[in-house]
Design brief:
This protein is an alpha+beta fold and 270 residues long. The protein contains nine helices and eleven strands.
Length: 270
């Protein structure tokens, strides 16, 4: 197999650069539903979510980069990418020099599921970098704080992993689609081709999250993205994300993130 280094069509915006790492916003311009050619990164990096969904295939493992998943990509490990239906994929990429290491940066591909509070802090940090604010703590220090101190499990494989991945794709796509009809966890189980009981057990084993917990995190991640993009109608936002009311969305925000949607919108609009 022929490997290509950094050849995927993309637009890059530099947010921060120091002697030890580089932070960029990367917009993928290819929206092909097919797997890409194989690539290798020129330096170790962590890919953090911004918008859209992209599937990665690394060393026989498959992982979905949705609105709450971060992925490490070490050098020398070929990977492929595939666009998933929904918004254009944009990521925040933190890279280190080839001989350096990132916080908790392992030598294999691993994925983290970020909590809503972590997503909120990261989005505020990216906005501050884009404004050129002085006195910010280094991105590297923030990642040490937000990413688990020990390496998470390598993305799984096998029959049960396939059901989990189908469930994740279904929930991520439906959450990103503002025109999608409301869906339930029974719909997720149908998409995964197994019973809800079996899926719930496998999902927690593979991800460490319940189906409900994953859906909640996806919704809050989507809400943060929409608010950063300037969404004004909080009632409509709550309805489109499947919340029973604006107050239901507000309660979830305060409980999981620590601020109200209105407070988040003001902070992310600065």
């Amino acid at each position: 197999m022929r490997f290509i280094v950094e050849a995927m069509p993309q637009d890059r915006t530099l947010l921060q650069q120091t002697a030890t790492f580089r932070v960029e916003r990367v917009l993928l311009r290819s929206a092909s539903p097919q797997w890409s050619a194989a690539y290798e990164v020129a330096s170790p990096r962590i890919v953090l979510p911004s918008s859209g969904n992209t599937a990665f295939r690394v060393a026989g493992h498959s992982v979905l980069l949705d609105g709450l998943t971060a992925l490490s990509l070490p050098t020398g490990l070929p990977y492929q990418m595939k666009h998933v239906a929904g918004a254009t994929r944009a990521s925040i990429v933190v890279s280190a020099p080839p001989a350096a290491a990132l916080p908790h940066g392992p030598t294999a591909c691993v994925a983290w599921s970020l909590a809503p509070r972590a997503l909120w802090l990261l989005r505020r940090h990216w906005r501050a970098l884009a404004r050129g604010d002085d006195g910010l703590e280094p991105t590297q220090a923030l990642l040490r704080l937000l990413l688990p101190p020990s390496a998470p499990a390598t993305p799984g494989r096998g029959r049960s992993a396939g059901a989990v991945q189908r469930a994740q794709h279904f929930m991520a796509e439906r959450t990103a689609d503002t025109q999608a009809a409301h869906w339930t966890l029974n719909d997720v189980a149908d998409a995964a081709c197994c019973s809800l009981f079996h899926l719930a057990r496998c999902f927690r084993q593979h991800t460490g999250l319940s189906l409900h917990g994953y859906r909640q995190r996806l919704r809050l991640a989507a809400a943060l993205q929409r608010l950063e993009e300037g969404e004004r109608d909080l009632a409509a936002l709550a309805h489109e994300l499947g919340y029973s009311s604006q107050s239901h969305l507000g309660s979830a925000f305060v409980r999981e993130i620590g601020v109200t949607p209105a407070q988040a919108r003001r902070a992310l609009a600065q």
